[in-house]
Amino acid sequence: MALLVVTGTGTEVGKTVVTAAVAAAARAASRSVAVLKPAQTGVAPGEPGDVAEVRRLAGSGVSGEELARFPEPLAPGTAAARAGLAPVRPPQIAAAASRLAEGHDLVLVEGAGGLLVRLDEEGATLADAARLLDAPVLVVAQAGLGTLNVTELTAEALRARGLRCAGIVIGSWPAAPDLAMRCNLADLPEAAGAPLLGAVPERASSLAPEAFRAAAPSWLAPELSGTWDAAGFTATHR
Fold first, then answer.
1. What are the residue numbers of the active site?
2. I need a surface site. Which of 3, 130, 187, 228 has the fewest CB within 10 A?
3. pTM above 0.90, yes or no
């Protein structure tokens, strides 16, 4: 994959740390990587955003670009309108990602919130940008109760738009998973109609960057340049 769009089943599910893990694993496999954040919300000018966090964890060798920043922690379209700023539109995202792909082996496009969060007043979404790019979409999901419904809804929305779900990554896997979480390891791929491609440990972002980079491949499946085995991981948590 030269282009991979990263979305989530909602906010605060671990998109940024998963993006960083995918970037770190790709770098460990000697691939050049760029991360694109089309719309950063809830961060003031001069403050580090998601791109900075990905680069902190995955290494400064990862290129990063942010297309727009809006101060209020809202959906990008709403945040842009309230700030009196121009929104980011899918053609801009596609153009920037395509440009970055010319100089990198892998470009990760990290969305804001979920797949269908509105980018502008016309209702455009990250799914529209993925369609313009003809790029697969990686879905970051929560581990626990309630995740199956929102994961299946996200996968259904992708299929309805002719987009391919590359797989599911659990954004925060706890040290002591409960029954629902353990059962979800087997149920998530069925709900999504796509493979489970990883599970990032909770509080992974609190690791020292060097430790994060060293461990990242062990959290992700070979499709994401890692060594993680879904069947083995699921079996150990039955």
1. 37
2. 187
3. yes
